Amino acid sequence: MSNMPKEKIGIVAVSRDCFPESLSVNRRKALVDAYTKKYGGDNIYECPICIVESEIHMVQALEDIKKNGCNALVVYLGNFGPEIAETLLAKHFDGPAMFIAAAEETSADGGLVQGRGDAYCGMLNASYNLKLRNVNAYIPEYPVGTAEECADMINGFAPIARAIIAVRDLKIISFGPRPLNFLACNAPIKQLYNLGVEIEENSELDLFEAFNKHEGDARIDDVVKDMEAELGAGNKKPEVLRKLAQYELTLLDWVEAHKGYRKYVAIAGKCWPAFQTQFGFVPCYVNSRLTKMGIPVSCEVDIYGALSEFIGTVVSNDTVTLLDINNTVPSDIYKEDIDGKFKYTDKEIFMGFHCGNTASSKLSFCEMRNQMIMARALPEEVTNGTLEGDIAPGEITFFRLQSTADAQIRAYIAQGEVLPVATRSFGSIGIFAIPEMDRFYRHVLIEKNYPHHGAVAFGHFGKELYEVFKYLGVPADEINFNQPKGMMYKTENPFA
Question: pTM of the prediction?
Fold first, then answer.
């Protein structure tokens, strides 16, 4: 996939001058060896500055990792560590940083005398100094370990670092105001700037002009052939493919012409009510194709939906989608296909749906059709261009980063799965199961005023997303999740 960074993590060992320097040197080498053996060494760099003990060493290490293209940092406490120099290293590094520490190795041969490093204690001082200097850093749940355990921590840090790097170099391009009666998608953009995201807002007329200028584009034939190959027997509306190809090229060219100094782009597009009658189609299938390329496109000018999709894409290194938390599952489907076969009650399942923006690679089957809901009020021929099919079963993470109406930032994350059960419905749709969904629906989605759109990553990425949101500055008590039984929400009635 394109449109995302490649992380290069600089590993810098630090040492307190009253501890043996050899502890940090040897433990750093063991850490790098362990990581390379298990994960390969393509995305790490071992800083050769022997050890950071002082502020001067800190400057030398900082210059070295910058010169070698590192965009993420691991500060490794091989022993107690110099709390000032190590904190300044993270402070002056322009990128995400993680702090981890070495566990003691052995009690044999004086291992707990001359070989004791006390990094367990040093991590406490590091955390205090980070807070004292207002330095943000990622510290794993248990940040002290053997070389192999610390290698696993660095591997877990990689997608988190990648997301932080990406968000800070992201531009969201939007087209048009939100449709009528979609105020829920109309969130203040102030928090985008707080997160480091740029926003370019355009009118639909700008987009329509650009689309018309692409009429007869010499590249259209090749895009149509690619669409035909992707759709196969599901190509039920071949007459609209040339217009869709023209629109796809319009968006891709717009991205290249308008990304400016930013490296990465997401799009918040408008698809109705005037879009169909003027463009002559619906953009759902094209949206799915760009999202599969790594350029997420949200519907209904959902800017925070596009941001959420982008974060999910970078964290999962995979295609995502944006769905309505849409409708309940009828009792006959539950009794026939779910009850007794899966562990969920009828209130822990729902259907996630959108008109047709989910990539073909994430559908069990797909067909190009017209958008039924829009066709109820418009001529059918202008509602072609939607991709329909049941979403492929498997693990998912439903999540969203959102600004409130008064410009406060919050998020939710819920892990679950798409069940291998036929939906008997239309659109890009699946039957989703999330433990304790009924309580989560009431005390998070409704209580916290979240809109109907949620981003979907295909796999369980709750751990990584939680750390990304926390690093971006979302207060811990505003990162909501589907709480298990016995863990009450603040607004939950204890007598219910």
Answer: 0.95
